[in-house]
Amino acid sequence: MINLILFGPPGSGKGTQAEKLKAHFNLLHISTGDLLRAEIAGGTQLGLAAKQFMDEGKLVPDEVVIGMLGGAVEEAKSKGKQGIIFDGFPRTSAQAQALDNMLLEKGTSVSCVLSLVVDEEELTQRILKRGLTSGRSDDNDVETIRKRVQEYRTKTEPVAGYYKNQDLLIEIEGVGTIDTIFDALMQAVNSVSSNHSDN
Ligand code: B4P
Fold first, then answer.
1. Yes or no: is domain 2-191 CATH 3.40.50.150?
2. Is the CB–ligand 1 distance for residue 54 below 6 Å?
3. Domain ranges of the chain
4. pLDDT tens sequence across 160-174
5. pLDDT tens-digit profile of 32-77?
6. Residues 193, 111: contact at Cβ < 8 Å?
7. 199 C-alpha to center of ligand 1: Å?
8. 153 is catalytic
9. Which end of the chain has less Cβ packing within 10 Å, N or C?
10. pTM of the predicted model, to two decimals?
């Protein structure tokens, strides 16, 4: 399997690039943000609990997010996918550890971590622009966006070190046209998948 992690701050383009990568490499796309928003839209208990955190720009508790991903590998295999693209997950060290354990149990592993590098001013502008049409309550307010970036710096950025130590981290310039960034991501994945194989 090819198992990719798209890593980067809020608004760095993870969701945008995941859509393109999943189509190109035939991957199951798992976006924890989308899964959480679907729970909110469905009015489930999990969604109600998650909404409070998301509206404040905070991360949703680890056990809630990890609990949603149990069947990912089976789902990818049953749908005939080449692997999985994780978009917005893991966001904490505990999530990274849980993902490693989950993949190991299924005889597979993380192939590489693609980290999109974008400066803070650009992130804020992108998210505010998306807020004009997304209907997402966490996209409209500069204070909430600032909180999301702060959560990223304190809780998520350290996860990059976890993968760097395993020689899995690849940094990609995340400012430029969507196609240029996609080309750089494709090249990175191709270089990894040519010397990576498991079932
Ligand atoms: P997410 O849904 O993951 O949202 P995101 O980080 O804001 O977006 P992304 O980086 O995917 O940006 P996008 O491509 O859309 O998370 C939302 C919330 O859910 C979190 O704050 C948290 O509360 C919760 N959550 C999710 N996962 C969690 C987890 N694992 N643990 C705990 N909590 C979790 O791009 C943004 C905008 O930029 C778009 O409008 C796009 O069109 C534009 N754009 C993209 N690429 C561009 C480019 N190259 N140039 C110009 N604009 C570009």
1. no
2. yes
3. 2-191
4. 999 999 999 999 999
5. 999 999 999 999 999 999 999 999 999 999 999 999 998 999 999 9
6. yes
7. 30
8. no
9. C
10. 0.93
What lies within 8 Å, CB to CB, of 81 at 6+ separation is 26, 27, 28
Tokens 């430029």 -> residue = 176
Q: CA 86, CA 35: separation in Å to the nearest integer?
A: 12
From the list 190, 185, 43, the residue with the least C-alpha distance to 114 is: 185
Helix intervals (H) in 56-177: 62-67, 72-78, 93-105, 120-134, 142-151, 157-164
CA dist., res. 189 & res. 112, Å (int): 8
Q: CB-based contacts of 90: which residues, under 8 Å, 6+ apart?
A: 5, 96, 98, 99, 159
pLDDT tens digits, residue range 22-43?
A: 999 999 999 999 999 999 999 9
For 134, the token pair is: 């997304």
| DSSP secondary structure string for all residues of 60-91 | PPHHHHHHTTTTHHHHHHHTT-SEEEEES---
Ligand 1 pocket residue status of 14, Cβ below 6 Å: yes
- The response to whether residue 148 sits with its C-beta less than 6 Å from ligand 1 reads yes
Nearest alpha-carbon partner for 36 in 138, 167, 119, 164? 138
